[in-house]
Amino acid sequence: MILNFIKVTLRTLYHEKVYASLNIVGLSIAIACCIILGLYIHSELTYDRSYIKHRQIYRVIKYNVFEDEGSNNPFVSQQLGSLLKNDFHEVLDSASFVIARPKHLFRYEGEAFYWDNTLYADNSVFNVFTHKIIYGDPASALIDASSIAVSESFSRKYFGDENPVGKLIEDDVSTYKISLVFEDLPENTSRKYDVLLSQRENELKNKDDFRKALDILYGYQAETYLLMPEGYNPDDFDKVSQMVYDRYVTGDYLKSRSQDWKIWIQPLSEIHLDKQLYGLRTVHYYLYGFLAVTVFILIVACINYINLAVARAAKRAKEVGLRKVLGSGRKSLIMQFTGESVFFSLVALFLGLVLAEACLRLTNLNDLIGKTLSLNFIAEPAIFFWMLVISIVFGFISGLYPAFYLSSIKSVSSVTTGFKAGKYSARLREGLVLIQFIISVCIIACTLLMFLQMHYITTKPLGFEKENRLMITLQGADLIDKVPVLKNELAKSKNIFGAAFCSSIIGRSSGGFMFNEGEMVARYNTMDVDNDFIKVMGIDVISGKDFSHDNQEGFIVNETLVKKLGWGTIGDSYYPNANLGKLLGVVKDFHHYPLHNAIDSFVFKRFKGTEETLSRIREGTSEEKRTSMIGYLILNINSANTPGTIKYIEETYEKFDPVHPIEFEFLDDVLNKMYLSEKNLMELIGVFASVCIFISCLGLFGLTAFSTEQRTKEIGTRKVLGATTWQIISMFSTRILLLVLGSSVFASLGAYYVMDEWLSRFAFKIDIEIWVFLASAAVVALLAFVAITSQAARAARSNPVEALRYE
Fold first, then answer.
1. Cβ neighbours for 152, distance < 8 A, ≥ 6 positions apart
2. Residue 598 Cα to chain centre, angstroms
């Protein structure tokens, strides 16, 4: 029986090549898109699952309340992990990470490379997190203070394929012995690292030590993870938090400052998609957007199959009638037609896999998605299994209605008088097409609004000059102290119009501080700059003067801070406890945050040298702290001779720092990277929107082809009676265009809601205007019209005599 079904299906494919091609092409493209999107979604939903004990691992979160405002922080005191492990039997083990430095240079036999992901960790990290070890013993890897554990990528960079355990590698301060090489962490890992340096445990041994108690309260150096028993309820940790508070926290100290403190734990599997700590991030929009697009593409492809199957009912009516006359029951016919649908889906799955693999290998989709996706069925055979299951289910659902519809055709009438589809069939097809148009208009409108928003934030004036500003990263206090001499040397080039030093990157979030005197409390961001910074960056001074006029002790603020605190008298001293001195000037507001955020209070402080900066930020000025210090030199360069200017800068830099390779970027590139995820999301949605619309047009093309075939005599008669080609085209397209108009109303409402939610992430955003939805509807209408016209015009231009002879 099954063999007979296969023969009938193959015979149908052979005789109805156009129908088969339209269905298979549409389904293949849809399945390829769903495979790619499915791989991304699978990667997002399985973050941190590579660790064997991932269900037992929890991250410690500190919750602070200050001035009635509560906030969560994933960085806690270094002492907290070992304290919890020692005091509470529920905590089986703990591991903590401390960020070593933003850029860490390691050298080996003349090879020097910067590494971003370098952390300090205690040896228990290998007990909590299961690594795949290539070389070395994890039980003792980080016990010695000079030991270092590295990733496979790090090892290959310096040592190739040889075992590097026992070899020495150095940074600016110390020499380390490689004790362990672990396999690169999977891409879908929350805390990634290539280098682990040994961190000596600093346990809290005296609960009466006030300094240690403050460390428990306010320390935030370490990201701490706990290994808990299987099946542990994280809500039970509230008791542990209260006991820590009672034993170690000075309650009166907090109450006198209207503060509160507690800790809670977060399951490792929830970190990546956590909303409570980070809010709705871009990763959520990627996930929700891709889920929606996946469903939309499947719906559109499913609608296409149903519409084409129902439309060709007239051609298969005699087949159904004859099979019924010969004894086939309705159940047998339903099985035949659903089997055909599943067969189509399986063929499309094979072609979709080929197409998906080609897209991932030959296009930049991985760059847009921000992940390295691949079809690795050997490593994860469950993925192929689920693809197979989903494909069969999709084929079954798609073929279900056509199967019941075709099997309901009466045997006698279909053989003698022929079959004519009823009004219900036509209305169903129109309803399904309406759904396709709603999806298409909605996706186009969302893509267009994303484009307008991204254009707005990339062209909006930021309050400072970002064009032609080259930003050089300065590594170490020794080089930063040479900045005045380095600037004088660079100024000898006629292609460098100005140079300035700053302690952080303008346009990004800077360090947050707080004025706190009396009852007045104000949060502000700050940046240490030299005398030329405000001039080089083109920031407008609206009152007073900048630092370049004299060396008077003081500071400069932005308009927002003046409005918030009511300042404005130049020369007055404010908040002497903050050691800021006198107010020298007020600058026009500028965007020191990404445009997701509103403009906040800002203070420019004069950079007085590395020793003072280090002593202000941390206690002491150890060699480690001096070498890890980072600053930035921003140059205003002539864009007419960029290559020559950069070559001169590299040669000059090497004279001052022959040890560190120069690192530089254009400031506008740095700032644009902050919106890269949104740009990629926009492009990806645009790509899949195009696919969705293409599949819809493919269906319209097929429907029109079958419709013109069924109405061949009518077209011929109308032509004989004087109908023009345009009138015949209008006959086919008018109702479809009305459907586009109707769908636009529903699609606009959906798109408005979705984009209003997305735009709410930006403090500075465009207005959603009605023309966007009208333009989206016009695009869909035009594409639908082209798809219909391509078939209707061919029928209208045919010889009416041949049409009237059509059987």
1. 134, 181, 182, 183, 184
2. 22
Q: In the block, which residue shows the tokens 């019209």?
A: 785
- The H or E element spanning position 143 is none
For residue 435, the SS3 value is helix
Q: Is the pLDDT of residue 681 over 70?
A: yes
CA distance 799 to 792: 14
- Determine the length of the chain: 807
Q: Residue 742 and residue 129: Cα distance in Å, rounded?
A: 56
Integer CA distances (angstroms), 628 to 473, 480, 610, 664, in order: 12, 11, 11, 17
Tokens standing for residue 530: 């030299």
pLDDT of residue 519: 45
279 torsion bin: left (phi>0), alpha (psi -120 to 50), beta (else) = left
Q: Are 224 and 62 in contact (CB under 8 A)?
A: no
Residue written as tokens 């699952």?
Answer: 49
User: Radius of gyration of the chain from Cα atoms?
Assistant: 34
User: Rounded CA gap, 142 and 131, in Å?
Assistant: 14
CA 291/CA 33 separation, integer angstroms: 11
DSSP state of 662: P
Question: To which H or E segment does residue 523 belong?
Answer: strand 520-529
Q: Is 88 exposed, middle or buried (0-12, 13-18, 19+ CB in 10 A)?
A: middle
546 secondary structure, DSSP code? -
* Of residues 162, 153, 157, 149, the one with CA closest to residue 108: 157
- Of the ranges 76-85, 208-217, 654-663, which one carries the lowest mean pLDDT score? 208-217
522-568 pLDDT tens trace: 667 888 899 999 999 999 999 888 888 777 778 888 998 888 877 66
In three-state form (DSSP H/G/I as H, E/B as E, the rest C), the secondary structure along 694-717 is HHHHHHHHHHHHHHHHHCHHHHHH
pTM for this entry: 0.78
Token pair recorded at residue 291 = 């889920």
* Torsion from C-alpha of 278, 372, 509, 592, nearest 10 degrees: -120
Cα(35)–Cα(41) distance, integer angstroms: 10
Average pLDDT, rounded, for the chain = 79
Question: Phi and psi (nearest 5°) for 213?
Answer: -60, -40
DSSP calls for 75-87: EE-HHHHHHHHHH
Share of the chain above pLDDT 90, in %: 21
